[in-house]
TrEMBL record:
PANTHER family: ACONITATE HYDRATASE B, ACONITATE HYDRATASE, MITOCHONDRIAL
Annotated organism of origin: Apteryx mantelli
Organism phylogeny: Eukaryota, Metazoa, Chordata, Craniata, Vertebrata
Pfam family, one: Aconitase_C
Domain Aconitase/3-isopropylmalate dehydratase large subunit alpha/beta/alpha: 69-505
E.C. code: 4.2.1.3
Keyword tags: 4Fe-4S, Iron, Iron-sulfur, Lyase, Metal-binding, Mitochondrion, Transit peptide, Tricarboxylic acid cycle
Pathway field: Carbohydrate metabolism; tricarboxylic acid cycle; isocitrate from oxaloacetate: step 2/2
Enzyme class: lyase
Name this polypeptide is given: Aconitate hydratase, mitochondrial
Cofactor dependency: [4Fe-4S] cluster
Subcellular location field: Mitochondrion
Stretch list, region Disordered: 533-560
Domain of life the protein comes from: Eukaryota
UniProt record similarity statement: Belongs to the aconitase/IPM isomerase family.
Amino acid sequence: MAPYCVLAARLRHALNSGVRRYHVAPVLCQRAKVAMSHFEPNEYVNYEKLEKNINIVRKRLDRPLTLSEKIVYGHLDDPEKQEIERGKTYLRLRPDRVAMQDATAQMAMLQFISSGLPKVAVPSTIHCDHLIEAQSGGEKDLRRAKDINQEVYNFLATAGAKYGVGFWKPGSGIIHQIILENYSYPGVMLIGTDSHTPNGGGLGGICIGVGGADAVDVMAGIPWELKCPKVIGVKLTGKLSGWSSPKDVILKVAGILTVKGGTGAIIEYHGPGVDSISCTGMATICNMGAEIGATTSIFPYNARMKKYLGKTGRAEIAALADEFQQHLVPDSGCQYDQVIEINLSELKPHINGPFTPDLAHPVSDIGAVAEKEGWPVDIRVGLIGSCTNSSYEDMGRSAAVAKQALARGLKCKSKFTITPGSEQIRATIERDGYAQILRDVGGLVLANACGPCIGQWDRKDIKKGDKNTIVTSYNRNFTGRNDANPETHAFVTSPEIVTALSIAGTLKFNPETDYLTGADGKKFKLEAPDADELPKLEFDPGQDTYQYPPKDGSGQHVDVSPTSQRLQLLEPFDKWDGKDLEDMLILIKVKGKCTTDHISAAGPWLKFRGHLDNISNNLLIGAINVENGKANSVRNALTQEFGPVPDTARYYKKMGVKWAVIGDENYGEGSSREHAALEPRHLGGRVIITKSFARIHETNLKKQGLLPLTFADPADYNKIHPVDKLSIVGLADFAPGKPLKCIIKHPNGSQETIMLNHTFNESQIEWFQAGSALNRMKELQQK
Ligand code: SF4
């Protein structure tokens, strides 16, 4: 049976049988019944199924397996027949669960509603974290957000109740921290509609960031496709100590691999150094693997994970993991596609940036480098927290630095903010005194949410356009991400270094060697921070912020007003008309870096994430036009006038003209946001041609019926000019592995032909033909 037929047969069965839970959990688990989480007492960890699948695959491949191979192949839909070749074949997988953050959940749930299915097929959750703007501090900001976003929160809560999805209310915390505290466990496979989902790898899970359409597939009980990942091994030796922290491991790896070095690969950490890192520290490292384009990152099950599971009320899962430990660590003798070795004993504190997370500098060098490069050395704001670094240990180490400054009568010279990762962390650091120490040193504790990390920051200390420096313990520092100011030089580093630098107020301070002057005029050095990885007492859970889905939500009404400015039901995209794409205009030829932040900006635009037409007004407004070096200024090829990108796209759409985008390397890196694919499709785009794509964005484009294509010869990027017309020919014979032809028509009448590659497999070609993956799913339903 062809792969697509298997998919179709299974989908038909899923849709007809009424038994929608295809994931491996409940039925097959006989050895021990341990719930996957406290919130789903009837959904069980199923290591027996994992073991069975691993044994089948090991026998077939007849070689030792890496850890990520064990977990990924342990979730194969058909382990007997699945073709497995790293970097080549597409795997059909059965993830155990789905998580969605509020900004991406809106579109995912709107697509799920369009699918017509009554209930999700696997345990799924929604997390309200992205829509809370940092302004005056925790409680006030939360109240304001609940008021402003009431319509969206109500939609997500009611859609969750109707379709069986758990709902984490605003104030509960950041998705990845909640997942680590409650849902990730060794051996789980989880997909999340957020690029930092790999955070859960700190607990030994395969946790992968995807677009909403992928999440809809899994929630619909359809096997989820992933290109069989390569495996990069990072061998850790030595021991972390002093000012060096888990963040420095990933900052160092980012410097080695760069923002696209992990593309198509899982980063697998191993070696004796692993045990010197706390579980939450391992999560930090996995979290930021997204910055190097990795599919995900993972650590092997160990005593630090066991301790964390015990402290978060999941000792039963740890006991079961002990029993199945051989499947939760790599086989000895397994082969990696590439190996990097890092001696933790020699690792120095790092700070990366500005404008890109792979520009690595030892903290000892940054002052001199900044002066040489003309980057402002005075730090305006230090920001700690986010999903990357908001653990109890992170807060403890920052508080340990702050305490030393306070003892000498000092406060932060820079402004200083703290974002707790979850309500549980907030309540526990309040109880244990860390929050007060951080406030005493000058900090403002913000809501348990993403806040400035995603541009939700009502920043008042500078004007837009002012050149300035900020340091954060976040993961991303793309231009304008935090405050929409392209002149903000953002650097990422560990929370304890952010705290030390905020006290000193300058990038020229190296806490390992430099002295501060106390209020008494005496010089002193900060000692390297030391803090407990977990609280001595139990965690304080704080306020109850979870809404269970009812057993039967079928009577629940879900509100989407036709006049809403925030929510809009989706219309299906048009089907492929069976013809080649001829004489397309070029909306923009992009110069240089083009992340999903450039394609669909966050910050103030987050409020339109549930309304496709409104959010399309931010299409590509951050991308630089090669023709004039400007952002959001492109030539309208029909009128010859320059204007904003979205307006030009709308004009072409109105005139019935299809268009293309030309991009550079690693197009669409960054967030998983599928709006970056939905928007061009909505406004009439058909083709995106680049030198290379980031993984999630490439899949998102395919899912929405666009053609992501790459130059067979990257130098052909220079052959296309913004005023040319493009035709993609040979679509009638569109087939996996077969390049497509592109005819470039220049304005002087000459033309030339170039070849374009693609990574479509058979079922993905059907998505294109149907207009989108969702259209295809509906076609199958109707059959
Ligand atoms: S990276 Fe920032 S915006 Fe994304 S989930 Fe983490 S805290 Fe939120």
